[in-house]
Amino acid sequence: MASGKRNVWRALLAEPLGVMGGAIVLTFVIMALFAPWLAPYDPLKIDVMHKFSNPSLAHWAGTDQLGRDLLSRIIYGARTALGVAITATGIAGLAGILLGLVAGYGPRWLDSLLILCFDSMTSLPMIMFALAVITVLGPSTATLILVIILVSIPGYARFIRAQTLSLTRSDFIMAEQAMNASNARIILRHLLPNVVGQLLVVLSMDIPVVIMLEAGLSYLSLGVKPPTPSWGNILYDGYVSLRQSPGMVIVAGIPLILATLGFTFLGEALRDALDPRLQLRTLT
Amino acid sequence: MSAPLIKVDDLSIAYASEEGPLQALRHATLEARAGEAIGIVGESGCGKSTLASALINLLARNAKVTSGGVMFDGRDILSVSDEEKRRLRGRHIAMIFQDPMTSFNPVLTIGEQLVDFQDQREGLSKSEKRQQAAAMLKRVGISDPVRCLDRYVHELSGGMRQRAAIAAALLMAPQVLVADEPTTALDVTMEAQIIHLLRELRRDYNGAIVIVTHHLGVVGELCDRVYVMYAGEVVEEGSTDDVYHQPRHPYTQALIACDPANLHEQTPVLPTIPGRLPDLVNPPMGCSFAARCARAHERCRNEAPDYVEVGPRHWARCHEALS
Amino acid sequence: MLSYAIKRIGLAVLIIFVVMLAMYAMVFLVPGDPASLALGPRATPELKHELMVRMGLDQPIYVQVWNFFRNALTGDLGYDVWSKRPVTDMIAEVFPNTLFLGAVAMSIALIAGIGLGCLAVVWQGRTIDRVLAVLSVSMISIPSFVVAIYLLLVFAVWLGWFPAIGAGEAGDWGSQFRAVVLPAAAIAITWVGYLARLVRASMLEVMAANHVRTARAFGLTQAKIVLRYALRVAIVPVVAIVAVGFGSILSSAVFVETVFSRPGIGTLITSAVQKRDFPVVMGCVLFMTAFYLTVVTLADLLMAKLDPRVRDTLRG
What we know:
Chain A has 284 residues and is mainly alpha-helical.
């Protein structure tokens, strides 16, 4: 097993895009974790005297329409983006695993019902579903996270369910059951270790989508409530003041693009590294 | 004796590979005359598929001709322009493919493809081409040819698919017909039917037929002459009768002895030829078969044997052939 | 083929029903109600009650759902809470714009994507191919509304080549086309790279397939082989992806329309959500779900027509 992990690392590091992605992701993670120490100013501090200032030594990224330092807001924005993304994806992943196990192991009627629910949720464009929920619950960060969780669950649940189903039909599971191994033991010892790798890939590919969704909804003023900084909020502020300060929009868009690209490259490299066919190549 | 329709002349082909050029075909020479059916037999890796590809002029991108050529109609077809090569294919030299299931386009009907294959024929309208196709399908033994024209390949049975493949090859009345493992994808019953069909078609077909296979029995049933290949070389050639009943090359002898059809008594273990194929990136200096030959001696390992005549139109590449 | 079609449509209808049910259920499971949320903290009970009646939320849930569906079938999707205009009219007014935007965006993406994909096959391995590989991964990950804002900044504000706002004058095709270019480009750009890569992969797989070799062996011209023997087979998975991608294009349209202040379903539903206009949101969601499911079902049927193997696997 140790050699398997080493091969994964080696494959991962071999991809230049993956390394770049990893570096970008690491940067943003550090930004998110250490925001209070890294940000030069308080992101909420208003200083109307210096509104719309261009990038300067005092304000590396300039200021927004209320004089707030943009660099600080962007750094805290990373905290928002990653916080929402990881929370939502984490919870959705756990819920998805549970529901997937229930669907796979439970009675047929429950499985059919769950599948119908999942199909319904995915037959709606994500954004429509999100908007509907937000109308009912009112826009807030909590609603946003809930929406993202609801939208992501079907994907994970379906994946786990498929793994469960194929496992229950496999021979070695039947052998285990013949030996009276409990279902819990089967799940823990056989199912989860097999799927952990692929699940990680799916999760990491989802994070850029979630970041985009959060930014998009915040941009529509339906996500994270101002004045809490979110890349989407900052973009909105920039959009509204486009004629007065075009720079704001450019500055706000860059971290969003970099973050989504970075996570996507990393996710792709991870997927390639964990591909069992490629692993075989590095082993021989 | 008439001039051969197609002649492979000292042909050597190498594939580019990571370890160096892989010499799949080494100075192979053969010829086929009008009305003649020749067989090319050998195990996997002997170069027969490469030879078949060369005949039809569809060599892989990494294949390089290092010597000789294929002479047809007075010129080397391997060195003509791409456009000329395209014009030769199907029209003058046609191939019956190994796996008809994947060789036909899955989203077009058989009829649409058979009409497409007649593209090079000028002066015929589409419906006339369809008629030709239907007629040929009937000729190969498909009972309801018109319905077959409107079917997709996955809707046909294995035997019908192979018949359709044969019909496709014959459509343009080519001068040379190359069959690449025509029965390998079939079960025994269908194989017998196809062999029967091919034998029957020979009566009306005036061109040359080349059958490439690892199956000795098929060649025995259909071919006048046979070429035995090993490690990229032709090691023996002659009339099917001569080669099968009086094989002179140790490899041919071993092949025939190992053929399950030739076993006359029960045996717990099927006979095989010990050893492995030689490395074709660095072919051996002497005889290619020396490492596996029971009768090999010093000279065989060091000196490549000449191609000697061991009987009337019967040749073998062995130092001991005449003994 | 017919039974397959019926099954797909039936499933789609069932799904719409479930979605609507879920949305109504949400209203009741949540503390507080849409009326209070819409009116804010200074709402008096009378005002709230009146709004609830107008939203139709004072009836028991099953009555509401029944009414909603009965009305929907006759084309009545309720009324806008504030302007009292029929939701159906509001949708009918703006949907053509969104449809136009989606169609143009899809066309650009398909033409450019398929074209680039085929070219990548011809230039396989060379620099252009590798650049395209990186680009395709990148572009699909970038949010389309960011691209939209940048395009707006560069081409509308700075260069002034295209309008920054609106969908052009009704009846004036020229102005409508000029207005749709930037939004459609914003959506299409993210998709072109991905489609190109998909077409390339599919084509490479098909070009190496046996049946292409056969076609070559019969002396068919390269053009015919690429079009009839390669593309025809390779396009099938592309159709599947495009159908699913249509939902994504619709989602992008929501944002892009907002950026360009372009009247459409996107701006309609966004402002409705901002105003907590429940009937409009419900109406839009129902409509878009039905539309999206129609597109997916049609794509499924198209796939079955293009690839006869699909038909047979379903019969059995």
